[in-house]
Amino acid sequence: MSVSNRSSRPADARITRSSRSAESQDSGSGRYGKPRKKQADSTLAQDLSLMNVNGQGGLNASVGKQLGQRPSGPSANKSGGGLASVARLMKMGRCKNVVVVAGAGISTASGIPDFRTPGTGLYANLEAYNIPYPEAIFNVDYFSNDPQPFFSLAKVLYPGSHQPNYIHYFIRMLHHKGLLLRMYTQNIDGLEKLCGIPDDKLVEAHGSFTTASCHLCYTPYPAEDAKRLIMNGNVPTCTFCTATVKPDVVFFGEDLPQKYFLHTQDFPKADLLLVMGTSLQIEPFASLVNTVRATVPRLLLNRHAVGPFQRIPLRRGDHVELGDLEDTVRRFAEMLGWNNDIVELMKSQEQECIPTLVSGRSGKHQTGSDESDVETCSKCSASSCLS
Predict the structure, then answer these.
(1) In this predicted structure, what is the pLDDT of residue 80?
(2) Rounded to an integer, what distance in angstroms lies between the CA atom of residue 212 and that of residue 245?
(3) 222 contacts 209 by C-beta, under 8 angstroms
(4) Residue 13's pLDDT is what?
(5) Are 196 and 381 contacting, i.e. CB atoms less than 8 angstroms apart?
(6) From CA 186, how far away is CA 203, in angstroms rounded?
(7) Is 319 a catalytic residue?
(8) 3-class DSSP string for the chain
(9) What is the separation, in whole angstroms, between the first and last Cα of the chain?
């Protein structure tokens, strides 16, 4: 993310990150801008026979019909009808400008917890940080007062400890087939770049750890120096104003990177929207899915129905496939005839990474440092795209 772009953007183009996830919290505004509670909108139940969600919900679907809610869970992905419909369109050549919208769910198969899954998500395991509410860890005002909770979490989130999974390589295969118009990701783990998705095809809407700057005056700071200090439990400070430096991860209340505004070109041009592994609770990212043309098919691959995919009935052209995301994407790839290509691509990436890692060890064996091996491995495949 370009710090200069963030600080110089005209006021009329300024868009900041905000959260809708706090709607279930208590009313009122807390010290660090805790959002007010909103009343849930009630909807009239409509004919579930018009739903384009896969599988039968049984008793839960009956209850959902009464409440105007869409069934979710393992029972909702039995038939594969949504996948088959979209796969058929792609094989017919009807989808040549695919936009992917992705969240933390695409990285759970790599061992990185998502944020909101009850019990296992990052937000459910922040008690040790003694923060007033989970999202405070990404609140710029709270960070200014106490950066240690975020820095403790950053040690887990810094790229280098995890590798891309099948889902990432499926998206890269979209690029290899010439179908990927752009990928918009909420993730800050860097796995999209690591699997070889080119920078010009990727919008990291919530920033990344690649660069760092002062959170107050935006003066750039060497990212590797910031990482070294944070990983050692120290606080990097700005050489200009002495305020705290952080990686250029977008916090609530901060401007989104300039590259995010490519969406004004991409979404009107898209002829297929794939939505994967996201709760669609963070604005303005969540609203992107509503900016494609009304005739464009949208496919949600997720554990639960979210956002506009909770409608009953679904919008014409919408498809929902619920369940384990990696399994679903693998089935999708098999329908497209891509599975073998993706497996071979993953093997080739692993083989490219191993010699670099061994070389790094041979040059640093006397130090006994594992960190250098991880950093070497994390850089080895980011630019090695298929020709």
Answers:
(1) 60
(2) 7
(3) no
(4) 53
(5) yes
(6) 9
(7) no
(8) CCHHHHHHCCHHHCCEEEECHHHHCCCCCCCCCCCCCCCCCCCCCCCHHHCCECCCCHHHHHHHHHHCCCCCCHHHHCCCHHHHHHHHHHHCCCCCCEEEEECHHHHHHHCCCCCCCCCCCHHHHCHHHCCCCHHHHHEHHHHHHCCHHHHHHHHHHCCCCCCCCHHHHHHHHHHHCCCEEEEEECCCCCHHHHCCCCHHHEEECCEEEEEEEECCCCCEECHHHHHHHHHCCCCCECCCCCCEEEEEECCECCECCHHHHHHHHHHHHCCEEEEECCCCCEECHHHHHHCCCCCCCEEEEECCCCHHHHCCCCCCCEEEEECCHHHHHHHHHHHHCCHHHHHHHHHHHHHHHHHHHHHHHHHHCCCCCCHHHHHHHHHCCCCCCCC
(9) 26
Q: Is the pTM of this model over 0.85?
A: no
Amino acid at 37: K
pLDDT tens digits, 129-139 = 778 887 888 89
Ranges 183-187, 206-210, 365-369: which has the least confidence: 365-369
Q: Which tens digits make up the pLDDT trace of 283-336?
A: 999 999 999 999 999 999 999 999 999 998 999 999 999 999 999 999 999 999
Catalytic residue among 162, 168, 175, 206: 206
Question: Tokens for 276?
Answer: 């994967």
Q: How confident is the model at residue 379 (pLDDT cuts 50, 70, 90)?
A: very low
